[in-house]
Amino acid sequence: MAEYGTPPEVDRVAASRAAVAARRARAAVKAAISAGERNPLDVLRVAGEDPASVEGGIRVTEYLTSIPSIGVTKMHRFMEELGISPAKRLGGLGRHQRRRLRGFLTDRLAAQTGRHNRLVVLAGPTAVGKGTVAGHIRTHYPDVLLSVSATTRAPRPGETEGVSYYFVDDAEFDRLIEAGELLEWATVHNAHRYGTPRGPVEEALDSGRSVLLEIDIQGARKVRRAMPEASLVFLLPPSWEELVRRLIGRATEDGPEQQRRLETAKVELAAIDEFDFEVVNTDVSTAAQEVVDLMQTRKPKR
Ligand SMILES: Nc1ncnc2c1ncn2[C@@H]1O[C@H](COP(=O)(O)OP(=O)(O)OP(=O)(O)O)[C@@H](O)[C@H]1O
Ligand SMILES: Nc1nc2c(ncn2[C@@H]2O[C@H](COP(=O)(O)O)[C@@H](O)[C@H]2O)c(=O)[nH]1
């Protein structure tokens, strides 16, 4: 029996219909961005997750000009500043290009709307109360994503996997580093490794949610390099004596470890000038409120 394949002209018609449908779908997304019905950061997130999606097929040039207040001249300037070729589609952006574009738009949109949903890093010396303040924010401000870190240290009594930390062994931590799955990582107090999983942070920021990282000072510096749009908040104790009281009162470290942490704390306190904001943790709920308020505050130019 003869084989009957689809005639080439039928293939061509189907392909051209599909191309028309894809063009219309892309035009609809662009129109929704211009009308303010779709958040441009959300479109960028979808394109990153699925480069073959309608969003992924939109050219970066068209994407930018569909954002109100970005005309053709500005668009060309931004493309040059961001180092993105005009031929690129959203789905074809590399990780660094997407991150630069997202950071740029986050700041621009925040400046226009007055809303500064952003990445806030909370750091400060040992026992100042970072974990306590961050825990208060998790409970009382559910709109803010509190990033859950991975660590090689063992769980303490009362700590829960996936809530306090992701407790992993050295081999798994090495794998996370190799796979580029950590936004930053550091060996803290010369003991264990801690790192911020990149995926949940980027997803939350792309969908317009504010994110809080409670990490050490080395990590804060690394976040500043990776995401310059982040605000760095330094949590201070009311006094050195109170810091020592909190560390000893917590009773989670033995004497030598307490001593080691206090030595590190002196070095860490000297890093305060590298931070955008300072919050004194005298009262937990007041300090938490101040940190959340900073998510809506334009950070000072450095
Ligand atoms: N405002 C506050 N007033 C009094 N005690 C506080 C206050 N904030 C935190 N504490 C207490 O201080 C101790 C240290 O707090 P916490 O463990 O949150 O510090 P940390 O900065 O996360 O420490 P580390 O970096 O070592 O993990 C805890 O016992 C906590 O209950
Ligand atoms: N650089 C990072 N530091 C982190 C991260 N998660 C927590 N930390 C810091 O580690 C110390 C010790 O924490 P503990 O729970 O063992 O007392 C503390 O200063 C945290 O801020 C992270 O992902 N990256």
TrEMBL record:
It is found in: Cytoplasm. PROSITE patterns: GUANYLATE_KINASE_1, GUANYLATE_KINASE_2. ATP binds at G124, P125, T126, A127, V128, G129, K130, G131. It catalyses: GMP + ATP = GDP + ADP. Keywords: ATP-binding, Cytoplasm, Kinase, Nucleotide-binding, Transferase. The lineage of its organism: Bacteria, Bacillati, Actinomycetota, Actinomycetes, Micrococcales. PANTHER family: GUANYLATE KINASE, GUANYLATE KINASE-RELATED. Residues 117-296 form the Guanylate kinase-like domain. The keyword Transferase applies. One of its GO terms (molecular function) is GMP kinase activity. Essential for recycling GMP and indirectly, cGMP. It comes from Leifsonia stereocauli. Its EC number is 2.7.4.8. Belongs to the guanylate kinase family. SMART domains: GuKc. This is Guanylate kinase. The gene is gmk. Signal peptide: none annotated.
